[in-house]
Write a structure and sequence with these properties.
Blueprint (H helix, E strand, L loop, with lengths): L6 H12 L2 H8 L3 H15 L4 E2 L6 E2 L1 H25 L6 E8 L11 H9 L4 E8 L2 H10 L4 E4 L8 E16 L14 H4 L5 E3 L16 E3 L2 H9 L5 E4 H9 L3 E4 L5 E11 L6 H15 L9
Parallel strand pairs: 3-4, 3-5, 7-8
Antiparallel strand pairs: 1-2, 5-11, 6-9, 6-10, 6-11
Helix pairs in contact: 1-2, 1-3, 1-4, 5-10
Length: 303
Amino acid sequence: MKLLRNTLLETFVTVVECGGFSDAQYALGITQSAISIRIRDLETSLGYRVCERGRGGFRLTERGEIAYQKARDILRSARDFDAELLELRDAVTGDLRIGMVDAVNSLPGLNLSQALQRFLARPNEVRLEIVVASPADLTQQLITGELHAAIAPFRNQIADLAYEELCTEEHYLYCGRTHPLFALPAAEVSPQQVATYPLCQRSYDMLVSPDLGSPEPKAVVANMEAMAMLIETGQYLGPLPAHYAQAWVASGKLRELRHPLLRWHSPFCLATRRIQVHRRAVELFVQDVKDCCQSSPAAGVEP
């Protein structure tokens, strides 16, 4: 049920997020000509063009970019408003916008799939949205209200958000099969040797300490898959979560370089805004996450 509804804004936001009229017609369930009429009516109401469309393809105008951001925020606020009123009838409804970093599904101790399964098993009218981004981006989206909750290794915690530690992720240093260190006996692995080879790291989490004498990273990536791919080339060393690298190691594509100084810990936290309307859907999800973490095996992979 939509208590606050603006069909023109909903159409405009959907068109932008679908990249044009063609894909938006399936998302909206109306024809392209009907979409064109709505966008024209919106532009007439606003007094300016929000997008260019035609043979050159779809693109937002400068004013359209601003209008899209504001329209998206308004529609999210409207859905939250609807949910708050409808929850008075004890319904679990509205949007649930969750953020997380990538490659967390196999993280021991988190058990996020089980938490989602438990949440979705209840009768609900929730529209679920999951965003994968860096901890810095997740923090910003929590502050602005774009997200209701986020799970990540938040190293830089701020006062506006509440954090609850869930589990710890173990990271080791890895090399590819063609790397010079791949065949090195374990007893001979040392930080000094590591420092002589090119290193790749994640842009949002520089794990390898400069205290080891390691050089600046020669490659920077935004996610785990890109990191593993670069390590597999044999041209770079790089840190990976042990649970994520396990399959690569088992297949012989990567090798862990074991040394007491070549392992790191990333505490994972569940973050929410301190000041926000306590929506039933958000409260249930947060509790499900905490319950499933408590019932999970101990986090981490033993060396």
